[in-house]
Amino acid sequence: MMRSYHSRLKAKTFCMIAFLVFVLGPLLLSAQTTKTVFVISMPKPSNHLYHVELNYRSAKKGALDFHMPVWTPGFYSLMDYAGAVSNFEVKGADNRLLKWKKTDRTTWRVNTATQNIKISYDVKAEDPFIANNNLTEDYGYIIPGALLLYTKQALPLPVTVKVKPYQKWPLSVATGLSELPGQANVFTAANFDELYDSPLLMGRLESLPVMMVKGIPHQFIGYNMGDLDRKQLTADLEKIIASGSNIIGEIPYKHYTFLAVGTPQGGSFGGIEHLNSASLIIGNKNLLAEKNRIHFYNFLAHEYFHAYNVKRIRPIELGPFDYAKENYTNLLWISEGFTVYYENIITRAAKLMTEQQVLDNFRQCITNYENKEGHLHQSASAASRAIWEMEGNPNNRDADALNKTISVYDKGCALALMLDLKIRHETRNQRSLDDLMKSLYRAYYKEKNRGFTESEFKKEAEQVAGTPLDELFLYANTTAAPDYSKYFAYAGLNIDTISRRAYGNNLGIVAGMNSNKIIAREVIWQSPAWKAGVQPGDQILSIDGNQVTSPGFPPLKDKKNGDQITMNIMRNGAEKKLMLTLNSWQTRSFEITPLPNPDKLQTLIYNSWMRN
Ligand SMILES: [Zn+2]
Questions:
Q1: The CATH number of domain 35-203, selected from 2.60.40.3650, 3.40.50.150, 1.20.1250.20, 3.50.70.10
Q2: Which of 168, 406, 437, 556 is most buried by a 10 A CB count?
Q3: How many Å lie between the centroid of ligand 1 and the Cα of residue 160?
Q4: Fold exhibited by the domain 332-495
Q5: How far is the CA of 340 from the centre of ligand 1 (A)?
Q6: Centroid of ligand 1 to alpha carbon of 303 (angstroms)
Q7: Rounded to an integer, what distance in angstroms lies between the CA atom of residue 116 and that of residue 96?
């Protein structure tokens, strides 16, 4: 931490210095240092307003710009957080109102003749989305970057936050921030990056028993957690944390907290990773039922492993952050895709997933982009930058975007898999992707305390593999077709990459039911429906004049390739008639099966890779 004002004392006589240091020193120094203290209250949750008091001491007098971030770490999308602010007011030390003006959408300029000012404002919080503030009669969820203003001067400096939960709630607040000893709900952060990466959850919450892993406490605290089997979740999550932290071998934080908000939608979830916490929205019905459990555990493993990959092992562009604009990187395929890969490895290492389930998930990663047109147009590094245009979520792409883009989650997972098998093959299974992650953690997080550049990542990877990796980086940086078979063969596996004709009389629509409407959820690339312009989200009304009443369309009788059918759809409130020409199309299954007669190295790699 800097104390740059020491230098002003140098010109004084020794006597004067002694006087200043011993008598006035602490006073002067403190008066000249920027200091930020927030007090957050919520006296009436039914009005969905957080009240913020900001006690700010400036290092000097004059105009000060206070900013609201335009995004929050982990969610790569511009947000209108400043738009939720109201009742902005500034007072000087004498309690007199001070003038301020908005200089742009996210900036409040305050003219200070005094160094100590008190700003107060309200923030509307009625969005249950995980990257925004929410306040209900039962719980409060705070994204600090959507609530607390910063100045450029204060960004690298320590900051204090006092939280006063609604008086009818329990006092405790769940957060990754550390509480000041002996001061309930007074938290400190070393700087605003730490503050903005530490959401807070309070209200009528429930805690699972503390999970101690390598002597470090891990908590799972939630609101409205529903019918979860608490005992099973605690036992399994402890295994996930243990196997996740084993990848790197040490735990870089003093405590970790999962902050969960339950929603009535069963089986759905969303999360954002943070420095030593994760925000989760979880469907609170049947989450541990067979069909949801693996998906849920992989999701927990994913958010947890981000505490390493992206929070500490990170591209150089991802921290310290610029909160005033998008923070682009070409390497999100590493930060997100490798985390998808590791969620499977971690859950498998915790023995919560079978080998077949892991292989099925890897196959899914590959088919997700290979069987869509976007893989011909966008590389993994281009998709990393494009996430800001996808509003942070590649799962939200519409039909047009699916034709032009890929998801870094899918392709990044496949790249991690190929890189892992390549390292294992080249080193006779002496090293693996884990060793690359460990060396990045040591060299960049621990020693240099910064992120890595693209060329530094490649250099580390080639050092671990002991061989050039140009081919893999070509797959990452271009749309060149990966030679999957070669990489899977390193583990004694075959992957079916042969294009086969999908059988005729198939329209190529995966449909679902929504409020008695039949909706196209997915339109398969090159299928008759895709060629006719059917888009995900279209409501299917009728086929050849027959009303469609179930997502499994009525069989098309007496039709052959080349025949035409009519389909009536509803899109944006307007009915449209489309002509579909029945046709077979090419598709690849990417089915993964064992190769006959694997050699010793292939068997060794497979078993070690699968954590058998
Ligand atoms: Zn992620």
A1: 2.60.40.3650
A2: 406
A3: 28
A4: Neutral Protease; domain 2 (1.10.390)
A5: 7
A6: 6
A7: 12
